[in-house]
Amino acid sequence: MSYSAPLNDMMFVLEDLCDLDGVSKLPGLEDATPDMISAILEEAGKFAGQVLAPLNVIGDQKGLTLTDGKVGTPEGWAAAYHQLVEMGWNSPTTDPEHGGMGLPAVVNACIQEMFNGANTAFQLCSLLTQGAIEAIEGYAEDSLKETYLPKLVTGEWTGTMNLTEPQAGSDLAAIRSKAEPQGDHYLVSGQKIYITYGEHDMAENIIHLVLARLPDAPAGVKGISLFVVPKFLVNADGSLGERNDVRCVSIEHKLGIHASPTCTLAFGDNGGATGYLVGEPNKGLQYMFAMMNSARLGVGLQGVGIAEHATQHAINYAMERKQGGTPEGAEATIMGHPDIRRMLGLMKARTEAARVIAYRAARSLDYAHRATDADEKARHQRRVDLLIPIAKGWSTELGIENASLGVQVHGGMGYVEETGAAQHLRDARITTIYEGTTGIQALDLVGRKIQRDGGVAAKELVADMRASAKALGEQTSAHADWAMLCATIMDAADTVEDLTDWLLAQNGSEPLAGAVTILECFGICLGAWAMGDAAISAATRLEQSRSPAHAQAKLKIVHFYMKNVLPKAASLSATVKGGAGSVLDLTAADFGVEA
Amino acid sequence: MSYSAPLNDMMFVLEDLCDLDGVSKLPGLEDATPDMISAILEEAGKFAGQVLAPLNVIGDQKGLTLTDGKVGTPEGWAAAYHQLVEMGWNSPTTDPEHGGMGLPAVVNACIQEMFNGANTAFQLCSLLTQGAIEAIEGYAEDSLKETYLPKLVTGEWTGTMNLTEPQAGSDLAAIRSKAEPQGDHYLVSGQKIYITYGEHDMAENIIHLVLARLPDAPAGVKGISLFVVPKFLVNADGSLGERNDVRCVSIEHKLGIHASPTCTLAFGDNGGATGYLVGEPNKGLQYMFAMMNSARLGVGLQGVGIAEHATQHAINYAMERKQGGTPEGAEATIMGHPDIRRMLGLMKARTEAARVIAYRAARSLDYAHRATDADEKARHQRRVDLLIPIAKGWSTELGIENASLGVQVHGGMGYVEETGAAQHLRDARITTIYEGTTGIQALDLVGRKIQRDGGVAAKELVADMRASAKALGEQTSAHADWAMLCATIMDAADTVEDLTDWLLAQNGSEPLAGAVTILECFGICLGAWAMGDAAISAATRLEQSRSPAHAQAKLKIVHFYMKNVLPKAASLSATVKGGAGSVLDLTAADFGVEA
Fold it and tell me: With a CB-CB cutoff of 8 Å, which residues 450-479 of chain B face chain A?
């Protein structure tokens, strides 16, 4: 079960579909030349393939131990983490002056895809640390930054996000954890569940970011504050002090990501855990939301990464598995069966499309942070905001679908755990749930990202899609088949525009009923746009004899996508517009009837 | 995690959509009156809900042991099996004169759905025994029947089907196991894998049905014979004799159905296992194919059963899980969220549609076996042959989809194993693989069942669909919304006819590339037909105040189906006709390119 980072496709997407040249002209990113990036990705790919991937299976099989509140990770896990820290892979985008590598977000997207694809359970640790870094970097006062940031950036300390409580899942308004003022700090108490890497043995300290209520806080979402609660208190000289009043009382027995500890943490059982307020009181949720784009993109890249890994796994199997024969009597592999190729085609086409969407979201993150022109900055921020729920929601759903198809390609062997195909499915299954379920992503898309801005960001996107279609349409003399590509992308743009207009015209709950279907439809249509652009680039590369095998395969998979993936968009659009009413008509009573 | 047999819906489908009255007029089924059937199903439902469902979770968690070739089932497993045998549930359709209950196949479909839905891993034992019964009953000489049938029918002995070998999965031509003549019997040797309940501790003897080659057998599928190989030899007086030369060398560690032993069996390590030829030499595969309809229907009913169980599980959770509040500040359950109802609606609508398709296949089995009119018999056999791959393929695929949606409805709780939602997904995942993968079902559908008979069976089905649509269209004065139902079912019929014509017009490999997509499309369209008929019956029941709550909910779910499930058929049809070429264009080289 080897994993090979898809470096050719990553560089293709970076250079040709995300304009890496343009990104590297942004202030602070001048070192991000294609040559330098290519070398970095090659190194990251080695780490993913040679270190993380082999541990993926071990982690799944061995799982975790919990003894006296201490979580033990599987053999090899801590050593690999130390290697990651030493090589500087923990926080690739952080400014070099804070100890990071200062890479563009779009390049980090490649690294995150690789590491998550090779070993989702492992990489979750850094993903959560990244969230803690952003919270502290963005909102904490300087003394907290000085104390905690440097070691979080290197990864010597890891971070966690403590949001969920038993009664407060997707609805954080119900949070009950408390924080009592006590001189220069607070005493935090309460129980948090589903805390990823809430306790482990890979780093000397764990910095918990905790949502809790101050004594005088208003009810609901406007009364939630954010606190830093370290596992070990930190002395003035930076050395570790006494153990804080927080402990891991249990870890979950989960379907997948077995080696990623999902902890229940008890804060303040012995009087209160020492915590420090981040930013202003009662703004905790706002700070959390500000960090969500990168965390959600990170999970979207888990979707892409698992989709890629499952695809490679299935391709390798199909190349080797002998079954049946040729008409001449020779043994043949199952790759010869059209249905196997259909499944592999679906896996490959959707993975490559989702990769482009996620990387383009990351590229816009770079522009939104660094562009000097205010309009350009704002336009990219709108694009980020629009793309993130799609990159998260669609990539993770298709990560599951790909993993399930991967099992199917393996046949009976796929159902036997030692093959490893089933692990992808088990691991992928969480990605549509955490960091906001697909339903939450979809509400974000239709409500905040489309209805609230009057469809501005969506219409900008439609214009870009039409420009891509037009570019294809202008070259039909050289490429006769591009007339079809042009027409299908025009259709996809029409579908996105039509659903945007539909959303803007609704006054009732129909958008809520249709939201997830709209998200999938947008994902498929944006994938078609990405594939159209890919066709142009691949044709150019072919003419220039640059990576011709990759370019040739890309052209075929573009056609496959248009004919085998895109048609679903029309039915999804019809379902939204025709079906939302019958969703709303279903009441609890209809489900409660004794069947 | 309770399971409640959907008795109301089962009786509705039996009486109104499968004409139970007509079935009970068939020779030998005269006792199958609705009252008697209803009483039987109620008893079966109790066994499913009270005995099998509680063991489902235990079986998943405890799994199996293998010690010195002996497989230990989880605590309670053997006792429940003995109860099943005592109550006569092992082989409900077998003729009473052979010790069975003599129930119609369509009634047995309900029982199989219940038992499989409550506990798939458990019921697999009887499903395999059923196959052994049919093989012996249909093809073995009388002495073998007398020796083995009675105890297989009661379930005192269980049966297995030994087809697969490491190099021979879907392609049985590659079978290498051998049988050497030795006086009145044969010495069988070879290794078989994936043998369900190949070894266990629930019954005193296990009767293996084994495919193997005679010394002079021709190569390929025409040289395979079928043998009975008992675990313990049977003495002339029927008592158990010495242990035969077959042993379980390993069991698989699987994604799901943990308590169903999947064995590797070694035959003949000590000179040869005593076996008895079933029927004529070299006809083994033909005999296997003849049994496939009921085995495949059985697995299809696993799909329906798991789909139903997962739906109930998710509904129960959504009814109880508090999250968020109403505008008035009261706590609300997640059932209030439109996206939760969309997911539950999809689960419920597809389950109910798939149930009708599977039961109608079973109903036609009854007619094909028992009708006195030769034309009617033949027509129903064609219908069985056409429906089986759809009932198997579509029901199992949507069993997986439903189980996955069930996890999603549970949110983070769904990913934690103790909730039980994830078990449905893990258990369901095998059903699209064994007894012929979905790809194999689809090849059967497009090749044997449509192209080979020139589309006769498919066109008969289209005519039935149009008759249902017409019946709806004739009542639009009383039911204004039935104009829509009529039109959508007409569309569904057109789609089935159009794809049938497309298939008949193809000469190349396009049907192989489009087969799975066609199968899904047919499933969805036939589901619409079933739902249309259900609307007519439900409206009649409402007028008569018979089960009005069920009828009311049915009418809503029919509308939901037409607007939220059926639209996909159009995109599938477009994918088949437009996309098959681009599937065939993909070669191994395209997948082998270093990405």
Answer: none
Residues with Cβ within 8 Å of B146's Cβ and at least 6 positions away in sequence, in order, are: none
d(CA B563, CA B561): 5
**Pair of tokens at residue B361:** 């296949």
* Chain A residues with CB-CB distance to B308 below 8 A: 595
| Residue B57 CB-density burial (10 A; 0-12 exposed, 13-18 middle, 19+ buried) | middle
- B-chain residues within 8 Å CB-CB of A559? 582, 585
Domains: count for chain A: 1
Three-class SS of residue B300?
A: helix
In a domain, A264, yes or no: no
What is the C-alpha separation between B251 and B352, in angstroms, rounded? 35
| 8 Å CB contact between B317 and B383 | no
Instruction: Tell me the ipTM for this assembly.
Output: 0.96
Closest by CA position to B337, among listed A509, A141, A144: A509
Whether the predicted pLDDT of B326 surpasses 90? no
CA torsion B286-B288-B294-B299 (nearest 10°) is -130
This model's pTM is above 0.95? yes
Q: Within a 13 Å sphere around the CA of A349, how many CA atoms are in the beta-carbon half? A: 30
Residues shown for chain A = 595
Report the DSSP beta bridge partners of residue A251: A263
Note whether residue A542 is domain-resident: yes
Q: Residue B512's domain spans which residues?
A: 454-577
- Quick check: B593 pLDDT over 80? no
CA of A74 vs chain B CAs: smallest distance (Å): 20
**A11 CB near a chain B CB, below 8 Å?**
no
> How many CB atoms are located within 10 Å of the residue B141 CB?
12
Let me know if residue A108 belongs to a domain. no
Quick check: helix, strand or coil at residue B153?
A: helix
CATH number at residue A370: 1.20.140.10
pLDDT (tens digit per residue) in B158-171: 999 999 998 887 78
Is residue A351 domain-resident? yes
